[in-house]
Specification:
The chain has 153 residues and is α+β, with helices and mostly antiparallel strands. It contains 4 helices and 8 strands, in the order H-H-E-E-E-E-E-E-E-E-H-H. 25% of the residues are buried.
Length: 153
């Protein structure tokens, strides 16, 4: 894939929609494409969170392991969604497992580079924080609904 392909993928994503063209361009120059087969973990809870993902194709479950209940799916995300916010906040460890439900293709950006850019360019950093906060609220609400279902049963 080319930088232009990555720019188009970013522009079409709800997460990045409306972001300044210079920010889209810079992100696209740093992105790589990754593929994960169905059933593969993209990351595991507790591992270093060193990547930020935009799902281009496929579906991913966010899971948590509860010793007395087994695996609970917190949320399923798909094309156009972003995966991961733990890379932004110390200690930079994943809070969930992320598993490909079907073959997944991502646009992936190195989190170390991204954190540096967020610190250096406060306009970009503010835009990313607003967007990541929205993702965090969505994940928190999904987790709350799962807990309500577990304890309500």
């Amino acid at each position: 894939m080319t930088t232009e392909d990555f720019k188009l993928a970013l522009i079409e994503s709800p997460f990045f929609r409306g972001m300044q063209p210079r920010h889209i361009h810079e992100l696209a120059t740093q992105a790589i494409s990754e593929r994960f087969p169905a059933g593969e973990f993209i990351f595991r809870e507790g591992e270093d969170a060193q990547k930020f993902y935009l799902i281009r194709e496929g579906r991913v479950t966010l899971e948590v392991l509860a010793p007395d209940r087994g695996v609970s799916i917190v949320q399923t995300i798909s094309s156009g969604d972003v995966l991961g916010w733990s890379w932004l906040f110390p200690p930079h460890r994943w809070h969930f497992d992320a598993r490909a439900v079907e073959p997944v293709q991502t646009l992936t950006v190195d989190a170390h580079w991204l954190r540096g850019w967020i610190e250096a360019d406060h306009d970009f950093g503010y835009e990313m924080m607003k967007r990541i906060a929205h993702v965090m609220v969505s994940r928190l609400q999904a987790t709350r609904l799962q807990l309500t279902d577990v304890y309500g049963a």
